[in-house]
Write a structure and sequence with these properties.
By secondary structure, the protein is mainly beta. It is built from 2 helices and 25 strands. It has 2 domains: 2-78, Rossmann fold; 81-204, 3 Solenoid (UDP N-Acetylglucosamine Acyltransferase, domain 1). The chain has helices at residues 8-19, 62-71, and strands at 2-4, 26-28, 35-36, 39-42, 54-57, 77-78, 81-82, 87-88, 93-94, 99-100, 105-106, 111-112, 117-118, 123-124, 129-130, 135-136, 141-142, 147-148, 153-154, 159-160, 165-166, 171-172, 177-178, 186-189, 194-198.
Length: 205
């Protein structure tokens, strides 16, 4: 497995892979030569994409993670990292590139897109749908039948009540309690949450 990105987020994914029994792990970053948790860093070798090794983009910022994925060639094979102490229903579906940290719970009929992050002790209840590049931070809770659009970040400890629809490339603040739908490109904070910023398109995120 290749980790693309040496950061704090990368350390967590590396630990998950080791807990999964992974032995053949490489770490790529734009700062070669440094030591990363006992692994040497090397520059990304994009010409090696598609040689059978799987890649995880270990970058926590959703927009940057998407930009890295977009520049890779079509033959790139992406892997997943799911901590052994996460609870993931066999009736849920996780797409490629997605990582699930320790203590997270993903319940039946949840659909999670590509390159998402389900962070430590996050809870995703039944029938939720998360599109690509979503990050659900530690201890955040999504009740049943919540939908979250592409690239949205749910802050630590946020709580989303059942049936809520959150748009794409939104930011939900830490500890927010969301009881109303949130439109695309909005920033919402507080209890109950209120929109404090509304952007117009992806380039403003």
């Amino acid at each position: 497995m290749i980790l693309y990105g040496a950061s704090g987020h990368g350390k967590v994914i590396l630990d998950i892979l080791e807990n999964m029994g992974g032995e053949d792990i490489e770490v790529w970053d734009d700062r070669p030569g440094m030591d990363f948790c006992g692994y040497p860093l090397s520059l990304p070798h994009l010409d090696r994409m598609g040689d059978g090794q799987k890649v995880i983009i270990s970058i926590g910022v959703n927009k940057i993670r998407k930009k890295v994925v977009d520049k890779l060639n079509n033959s790139t094979t992406f892997g997943n990292a799911i901590h052994p102490r996460a609870i993931v229903s066999t009736r849920s579906r996780l797409d490629v590139g997605t990582v699930v940290m320790g203590g997270a719970v993903i319940n039946p009929d949840v659909i999670i897109g590509k390159h998402c992050i389900i962070n430590t002790c996050a809870s995703i209840d039944h029938d939720c749908k998360l599109e690509d590049f979503v990050h659900v931070s530690p201890n955040a809770t999504l009740s049943g039948n919540v939908s979250v659009g592409e690239g949205t970040h749910i802050g630590s400890g946020a709580a989303i009540i059942q049936g809520i629809k959150i748009g794409k490339w939104c930011s939900v603040g830490a500890g927010a309690v969301v009881i109303r739908d949130i439109p695309d490109f909005a920033t919402a904070v507080g209890n109950p949450s209120r929109i404090i910023k509304l952007k117009q398109h992806f380039d403003e995120v």
